[in-house]
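Replying to the earlier thread about multi-chain prediction with a worked example.

Input:
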Amino acid sequence: MLKYAVRKLLLAIPLILGVITFIFILVELSPGDVADKFFTPETPPEVRQAIVAKYQLDQPSIVRYGAMLKNLMFFDFGRSMAQERPVFDIILETLPNTIILSAVTLLIIYPTGIVVGSIQAVRHNTVVDTSLSIGSLLLNSMPSFWLALMLQLLVGFYWAGWIDGQVALGAMSAEMGGYLTLPLSGMQDPMLEVVGGTRTEVIIDRLKHLILPGIAMGLASAGSTARYMRSALLETIRQDYIRTARAKGLREGTVIVKHAMRNAMLPVITLIGLSVPFLFSGAVLIETVFAWPGMGRLILSAIYSQDTPLMIACFFVFTVLTVSGNLLADLAYAVVDPRIKYD
Amino acid sequence: MTAITKTRSDTAPALTRAGLALPGLGHLLVGEWVSGLGLFLLDAVLVAAAVTGFPRVGDILFGGAAGSMSPHAVLALLAWPMLAGTLWFTAYRRAFPRKLSDDEFNSNREIFLRTLTRHRTGMLGFYGVAFILLVTALTPLLAPFDPDIVDVGTKNLAPGAPFYMGTDGFGRDVYSRLLYGSRISLSIGFMAVTIAATMGTTIGALAAFGGGLIDRSLMFVTDGLLALPKLVLLLTIVGLFRLQGVWGIFLIIGILAFTGWMGVSRIVRSQVLSLKQQEFVQAAQALGLSSTRILFRHLIPNALAPVIVYCSLAIGATMLAEAGLSFLGLGVPPPTSTWGVMVADGKDALRNAPHVAIFPGLAIMWSVLSFNLLGDGLRDALDPKLRGH
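Result:
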């Protein structure tokens, strides 16, 4: 097992090296002078000289490649052109936000997907099964950014309007109304940020800001998880040990939850690691719609402002996290499924 | 295979002849409601095109820039009778089926067609796709307005006559823009997937056929690219290579193709690996055929069925990716409108004019769903072994 883990880990290194080489080639091939991609015309000449010296921009490609490798190895991503500060600091600020959002999304995807998929499998070929299948298919065909906009429209306009109406009528207290209204964008209530609040207030506020982006990002993928869970559970239910459990006279609920679902869930859960690239792709669109200050929006702003060092760094971080996610998925699968050969 | 061969009949119920009056009616009367309603939908598009388009043929043909003929309009006019003919021919074939010899009846082609036409959700997807293609082909006849004409007087109007889907923040007709946008969205999807499938097939087949170091290095690249977050990869490339105008569209197609071939190449590789062991390949080798000939004439054609299925599913995914890029303002450069751009246009006036964002989103959903359903149907029809998964 340990040997397997080490082997997989060693295989990830050439992959990351390959990705770095790939970015380097892209930057070299892109139009314009290489040096221009690392500072703006307004950069003072002495800073410019320092940057050129540090990244050896006046040297031939192969030397620049070596310099880039060395810098990335020590997580030195250079200076952001647009924000005029080290890229590393920027990423340190934004990465946690994306990780929080991704975690919440995973919390929405897996429980929903597993429960829905199990219901479908238990009620195989009934109206419930078919309608849930159609529902998840529709969600899967929906552009996530459009779903996000529709959620904003529903919650921000119709739902908020209804609550305002109730409060105005006196049917609901203003405090209750405040609890039920969901914020449409950002990560924190600006009032709370300025005035400050108790710990619980801050946490509740953060959670409320997370609900809509989390749903928008997770709903489509919950559909495909449900489909996966459905087929896994259907396969498990046909096994002999399920018949044995039933023959022992166990209640159907116990058979399904304790015997079938436990086994069917294992391969589904290992999918978490594989959903990392999907999460990051979704993050770019959803963070834009909900103005969530995470990595997705960071790479976009880097692209809009032609901030090459920041762009490269974001891409690098995304890649390293994705590769680690895949690695974890491989290891997790090997742990839960002993039939996997470690070679 | 035996499950598919039902009792064959060379004649159809008399009711199917009603289809000759209106394509689809015959199918509906004998209980084939998916085909019946699907054909009705297509009939409706043709009728709508005739009603809105034919009275102003002159305008459509010569009303463009400086009175020059628009090629799209000419194509639409030529396409109309051909498409109408196809619909009637479908109805005619249902009423008077072709007499098949036993060999023909059991040929792969006929079995494939029979399985597909009996696959309900697959046919739903098929008619969904046919609908979009028809609409795209007939756009100049269907669209009541010029999609790019800006009129401040008609800003953000709610849906109603004469703007069936309302107008956007620049006073442009959403319905016309939606119709014209389908052209770009669809062609990007088709072209990117075609290129990706060609690349993927070649690389996958080379890897499997070459074996050894070739296989390992090609698969290393494939797996590496497959592991990357696709949208981030797309964004980085688009961000580094900014191109304007038509080249911008080609860049998007190229990038989408470049990030899409890995799935195909893995499928083809595993197919070719298993086919390589089979006897017909040994026979071909024994006959002294060259490796290239075996690869391109024996192995690849036999490995193509899952590629076709994958392509249908990939078109949906590619359209979603393109919509995402366009939504972020990094896709097709303006003034060309695509559905993703239109959703982005509607984002800013979501409260006052939600229709601007709603309709293009529904259009994307419709096409992606259709291609996915069609892909599932094709999978079942092309490969009976995979059925039920």
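The two ends of chain B are 17 Å apart (CA to CA).

Feel free to reuse this layout for your own posts.
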